[in-house]
Amino acid sequence: MGTAIKQFTDLFKLRIGIVISFTAIAGVAVTPGSLAGWKIALLGLAVLISSASAGAFNQYVERDIDVIMARTSRRPFVTGTLRHGPFWLCVILAMLAGSVSVAAMALNFTSALFVFLGAFFYAVVYTVWLKRRTWMNIVIGGLAGSFAVLAGAAAVDPHLSSQALILAAILFLWTPPHFWSLAIAYHKDYDAAKVPMLPVVVGDERAANIILGSTILLVATSLMPVFYGMGWIYFIGAASGGAYFLAKSVQLARTPSRATAMSCFHASLMQLTLLLVAAMLDAAL
């Protein structure tokens, strides 16, 4: 039973989906106006299901490289636990269509469009078009998280606020250093699979320096909402999380290794969590 649950959560990348849903709710919180509780719940569900469909499609398409990488070699399409074929494509498409339809009917067209674009950018733009072609894959593909923020903001008001746009920009800037840290830790996997992640293309040392530069830009941008109406609660969350991520990025730049890369990766998650929670608390209080 435990194995089946793990395969289910892994197939649909539910941990990532929950984070993305959280960002959508943060988009609601920072947007002036209000949204009924049941609509917020449907928004979170729609974003979660659309994200899950994109995650499953990612694994459906990448089974040939997943088998090469130790981190992904036990995924169900690789092991044969799930049969690769048209059935799963239909399931994935139905999930996406259902989530977008729910958003369109319960919220509005603009919010539904952003729900769709989030899944499309991860499944098609990142997975199919960019991942095997360019180190810019995660930079452009990172827009998937930004669209979740915009989906939440548009659910309140289709005319996007400055706070929502800045938060979307923060998510866009957050994704590359977050993922590049993981890519340093799994450099050998990506190299074996011939996936041109940044560390494979430029080496771990240079990639670590780029991560540091990206983190500095991210932290500076994360403080901008203070000048657009966010208060001291947001400032404390953004500044403390940013300082922690920045410290780990400095450590990674000084000593590029799997250990420091994973430490930086986890720091990025802490930074985002603190920022989003602080944004929602600041808006609520």
Structure in a nutshell:
The chain has 285 residues and is mostly helical. It is built from 15 helices and no strands. Helix 2 (14-29) crosses helix 9 (143-156) and helix 14 runs antiparallel to helix 15.
End-to-end separation in angstroms reads 42 Å
The beta-strand count equals 0
Main sheet?
A: none
Number of helices: 15
For the record, the CATH class of the largest domain is Mainly Alpha
Number of domains: 2
What percentage of the residues does DSSP assign to strands (E)? under 5%
Molecular structure report:
The chain is mainly alpha-helical. It folds into 2 domains: 1-115 and 144-154, Tetracycline Repressor, domain 2; 161-285, Four Helix Bundle (Hemerythrin (Met), subunit A) (Up-down Bundle), CATH 1.20.120. It has helices at 2-11, 14-29, 37-61, 63-66, 76-79, 86-106, 109-130, 137-141, 143-156, 162-185, 187-192, 198-202, 204-222, 232-254, 258-284. Helix 2 (14-29) runs antiparallel to helix 3 (37-61) and helix 3 packs parallel to helix 7. The chain is globular and about 50 Å long. The chain starts with a helix and ends with a helix. The model has no long low-confidence stretch (mean pLDDT 94).
Secondary structure: elements and pairs:
Layout: H1 2-11, H2 14-29, H3 37-61, H4 63-66, H5 76-79, H6 86-106, H7 109-130, H8 137-141, H9 143-156, H10 162-185, H11 187-192, H12 198-202, H13 204-222, H14 232-254, H15 258-284
Helix pairs in contact: 2-3, 2-9, 2-15, 3-6, 3-7, 3-9, 6-7, 7-9, 9-10, 10-13, 10-15, 13-14, 14-15
